[in-house]
From TrEMBL:
It comes from Agaribacillus aureus. It comes from the Bacteria. This is Lipoprotein.
Amino acid sequence: MNHQTLSVLFLTMVMLTAIQSCSNPQKEDTSEQVKVYEKGTFGYDLDFLKKYYQDLILLEDGEAGIVVVPSLQGRVMTSTANGSGGQSFGWINYDYIAAGKLNHQFNPIGGEERFWVGPEGGQFSLYFDQNTTFDFDNWRVPKEIDTEPFSLVSSDGKKALFQKAMRLTNYSGTVFEFDVTRNINLLHKEEIEKLLGMPLSDAVKSVGFESENTLTNKGDNNWDKTSGMPSIWILSMLISSEQTWVIVPFRSGDDEALGKIVTDDYFGKVPSDRLVVKDSVLFFQADGLKRSKIGLSPQRSLPIAGSYDAKNGVLTIAQFTIPEDNTDYVNSAWEMQEKPFAGDVFNSYNDGPLADGNQLGPFYELESSSPAAALTPGESMTHFHRTYHFTGPKPHLDEIVSTLLNTNLAEVESQLAK
């Protein structure tokens, strides 16, 4: 076989190989591109939520991130301080979301921070129709804050702005027309330090976000104490453990001047081993094992509260605005009220089994409210609520607790030994 023949054979083989390659392209190795995350991680929750909410927005800053969903009223569903493999901090009701059914009363899908309006009960309630009794069968969450979406106005990877027009009627028959704007801002570490007024160690992982919630009277009438006044109500659903305690610093002083320290009988009086009141701080057990709730008045509340999960080493801080010289806060008690504007600034709820043994969670909530909105037509009111999570070496977490919450981790953990 001569040189020319060998050359022809070689070229023929090259052409055949190329044709075969084109007709049978090799599949790309995607094993590194698809990662399955364990339940409890941010990556797991992000993948889960993507299946059900196509409008999902991911805001990120380094390893810190949050998931926001416009169709869920601009709700922050969860967050992470340590990337996709880090712990997911928001409580999510997976089974309820997967079932895809709507409930006419309330759809408990969870979420780390959501927008509601108050009051819940009383003659100015927005959750009970006129001439109904204040019991669970008649209670329902307005669709505007439960099932209807908020419109996404803008988003840039660090912020997301939402808007919603609402028309609600309270128990007394007053119609409220108003606009809500909700601006979610993922905070950089330097912003967190500035807002909390303290430096953070590089050994601490953190995530922080702020919701700026504005309510504008779009109707023709003034909102006052005769008609009732709505309020901005922010609720955070967080994952409980048997070693979680809510930590609430408060303004100390005489009961005659400031009133009682804490309201502790929303669902029956909280047992003394679950609510410990010290000189300037109280501890409320948030283990998801007993349904209970506490509240602090504007006379007692400070613009900060927190919780510590000793099992998972997670410190959570909630920070919120309390305007000076305004003590009119809506009362959400399920009854006709003598003092409908003597309500709470801060609340914490611990989930637990109902009388029939069923349970929604377990989870717990940190909640804040704005004052009652005494707005004239066109006037607005804004309420800020910020959520921070910290993980890392205990001495550094203890520094945060000692600086912000009138206590220390040793005192918090002493409650676990009881």
